[in-house]
Automatic annotation (TrEMBL):
Organism of derivation: Candidatus Roizmanbacteria bacterium CG22_combo_CG10-13_8_21_14_all_34_12
InterPro entries in the record: 23S_rRNA-intervening_sequence (IPR012657), 23S_rRNA_IVS_sf (IPR036583)
Protein name per its UniProtKB record: Four helix bundle protein
SUPFAM superfamilies named among the record's database cross-references: IVS-encoded protein-like
Lineage: superkingdom: Bacteria
Entry-linked NCBIfam families: four helix bundle protein
Record-linked Gene3D superfamilies: 23S rRNA-intervening sequence (1.20.1440.60)
Pfam family, one: 23S_rRNA_IVP
Length: 74
């Protein structure tokens, strides 16, 4: 079994986290809304976390975790 970092979707999710954090950092108006920023950060981090956790399990569970990750991204 290869490493989760070899998955394109995982790497794209990691890129998304960086973009979300940068967006918040560069937008002073947005960064004033702590609750929204916190939710955006937690949701973005949840995507690669769920991909990673599901990857370590069976294919059945991996599909489920991908669904959870998709929900966090929406």
């Amino acid at each position: 079994m290869s490493n989760v970092k070899s998955l394109k979707i995982y790497n794209r999710a990691i890129e998304l986290v960086g973009k979300i954090y940068k967006l918040i950092e560069l937008n002073p108006k947005l960064s004033k809304d702590f609750s929204l920023c916190d939710q955006m950060k937690r949701a973005s981090v949840s995507v690669p976390a769920n991909i990673s956790e599901g990857y370590c399990r069976s294919q059945k569970y991996f599909k489920n975790y991908l669904g959870i990750a998709k929900g966090s991204a929406n």
